[in-house]
From TrEMBL:
TM region positions: 7-29, 35-55, 67-85, 130-152
Protein name: Uncharacterized protein
Keywords: Membrane, Transmembrane, Transmembrane helix
Annotated organism of origin: Alkalibacter rhizosphaerae
Length: 169
């Protein structure tokens, strides 16, 4: 159990680091180019699928709940930032300009940076609530990392069966 959790945490951290690299690359592209923004979104989702695939291949005895836990751990840091920003925006009133400035740079900037690769999806619904869009982005990461882990587990089981079959022959 401890080994499985360590592997899950390892891949969640690697996934977040790679996501931050993709988000950093996304700041360098032209936001007017819809195709390029869509390409960055697809790259981000492929990265999360690949990270899940690698986890699924490493944790063959993992259950679906382990893969959901993995998806949740992948988004946990950003989920905390997102929820904090949502709660504080709705409850804190009467702040001075410098307090609003500090609140934005402490909570808002990391949230916007992490969601940077998803701008092509967010631009589809310009009139909707920004926090709903960001929560959808988080759920996309959970979905794609879960699917990747599930596919990776199936692929690894198939490899193990083939190697076992070869050993028997």
């Amino acid at each position: 159990m401890k080994d499985k959790m360590n592997i899950i945490l390892k891949w969640a951290v690697i996934g977040n680091l790679v996501h931050l690299l993709v988000a950093g690359l996304n700041t360098l592209i032209n936001k007017e180019s819809t195709g390029l923004m869509l390409l960055m979104t697809v790259l981000t989702l492929l990265v999360w699928t690949f990270i899940g695939f690698k986890l699924g291949g490493e944790v063959v005895k993992g259950k679906e709940t382990d893969f959901l836990l993995f998806g949740f751990l992948c988004i946990l840091p950003m989920l905390l930032f997102n929820l904090s920003a949502q709660v504080l925006q709705g409850t804190v009133e009467g702040l001075t300009t410098i307090q609003n400035y500090n609140l934005f740079y402490f909570l808002g900037a990391p949230v916007l940076f992490w969601n940077n690769p998803f701008y092509s999806i967010m631009n589809l619904f310009p009139e909707s609530n920004i926090y709903i869009q960001m929560n959808i982005n988080l759920m996309l990461v959970v979905l794609f990392s879960f699917l990747g882990a599930y596919i990776g587990k199936g692929f690894r089981i198939q490899q193990l069966r083939k190697s076992k079959k070869k050993q028997l022959n």
